[in-house]
Amino acid sequence: MEQKKVKYKRSYHRIIIIGLVFFVFIATVLAYNFSKRIAATSAKPTVSLDDKYTIMVMGIDSRSDDVGRSDTMMLFNVDTKTDDVSVMSIPRDTRVQMKGHGYDKINHAYAYGGHELSKDTVQNLLDVPINYYVLIDIKSFENIIDAIGGIDIDVEKRMYYDDPWDDNGGLHIDLYPGMQHMDGKKAIEYVRFRDGEGDIGRVARQQHFLKAVLEKVLTPSVLPKLPEIIKEVSATVKTDMPFTDMLKFAGMIPKIKDGTITSSMLPGQAAYIDDISYWLPDIKALRQDIAEMLSLNVTTQMQQDTDKTAAEYAKDLPKGLKLLNEDATETNQNSDSETKTVEKKAAPVKPQDITVMVINSSGINGAGAAAADILMNKGFKISSVETGRTSANEKTRIMTNENAVGLFYGMPFPCVIMTGSGEKQAVLNIGKDFKK
């Protein structure tokens, strides 16, 4: 029996993610750079569905001591007939099955098997072929932003994060709300800010960041800087896209800029397993979203395959898994929509109003899970439980909004309470002084 065509359930018209056009910009300058040596460029045949192309774009966090992780992953669907673009952000903590490695976070696939394993893993998750991959070294973003003369970003809230042990020498972020011009260093701080929103907040900031980049690169002032930009981009971008398709996508820029771009995040649920944060994909909703992106009719066989995959995924979830705040996730995802504000007396802030990100930077096994349990028992919501980039934090610190400071007094573990986070959010960064 033929199933009814599914409905694509999320379209963030006001977010206007322009990530693909940023990618097209990269493809354009690469095409310009490669045009002098076309003969050496791969001309492999493309596989598309009615002129639709699916492209996996990954931002790679490369490091000197290992191959790195795919810190950012987005899936682009481009329809060259209609000039429609759909973009799906894939949280880096998405729990997936990888060939030869069992279940793990999707950003680990690159470390295990490079872009080949990443591509294979995403294809199996979505049940659709991927035409091309694009790898971008995240560290090069700073140089690219400087090369275009910086960007203007409207910072949506106060962003403060200070950890001298984080990120190979320390991480300090201190941004205030409002429109401001940022050089590469400041722009990357904006993208990397961590708060109670977890992966959802990071995805929203990545989209906001790419929109700001697009607006800048399409201005006349950037044209004289093209040679410098080409130099920066061509040295840090890898792709298997042939020259002919680079030109095809580049030609879509004017139409895409004035058109509608539909964006979404891979549907799922936040959870943590053994002190580690994960995003558990909703297989059925995901396959429906992909079918709509590609204008596919869902056949009985496709539906049966989806049901089987979803059942196998649920069966393999380990014991001890704890789901986190589905209601908070839905609220954050739709925070972009227009709302009406009614003046009323502010109610006292309660623990259930606060969403907390827990980061275990202590080196103490299980400390993150233990702290999350303590906070949930007190009524707080947990967005994620993550392992810090360091295990050398000496003191446990809680950063929250000034209106919520009092809620964290009397914790059954030593901690320093600081202000600086967004409204109704907090970050608990665990140090060596933590006691379970």
Automatic annotation (TrEMBL):
<feature type="transmembrane region" description="Helical">
    <location>
        <begin position="12"/>
        <end position="34"/>
    </location>
</feature>
<feature type="region of interest" description="Disordered">
    <location>
        <begin position="327"/>
        <end position="346"/>
    </location>
</feature>
<keyword id="KW-0812">Transmembrane</keyword>
<dbReference type="Pfam" id="PF13399">
    <property type="entry name" value="LytR_C"/>
</dbReference>
<dbReference type="InterPro" id="IPR004474">
    <property type="entry name" value="LytR_CpsA_psr"/>
</dbReference>
<feature type="compositionally biased region" description="Basic and acidic residues">
    <location>
        <begin position="337"/>
        <end position="346"/>
    </location>
</feature>
<keyword id="KW-1133">Transmembrane helix</keyword>
<feature type="domain" description="Cell envelope-related transcriptional attenuator">
    <location>
        <begin position="69"/>
        <end position="217"/>
    </location>
</feature>
<protein>
    <submittedName>
        <fullName>LytR family transcriptional attenuator</fullName>
    </submittedName>
</protein>
<dbReference type="InterPro" id="IPR050922">
    <property type="entry name" value="LytR/CpsA/Psr_CW_biosynth"/>
</dbReference>
<keyword id="KW-0472">Membrane</keyword>
<comment type="similarity">
    <text>Belongs to the LytR/CpsA/Psr (LCP) family.</text>
</comment>
<feature type="domain" description="LytR/CpsA/Psr regulator C-terminal">
    <location>
        <begin position="353"/>
        <end position="400"/>
    </location>
</feature>
<dbReference type="InterPro" id="IPR027381">
    <property type="entry name" value="LytR/CpsA/Psr_C"/>
</dbReference>
<dbReference type="Pfam" id="PF03816">
    <property type="entry name" value="LytR_cpsA_psr"/>
</dbReference>
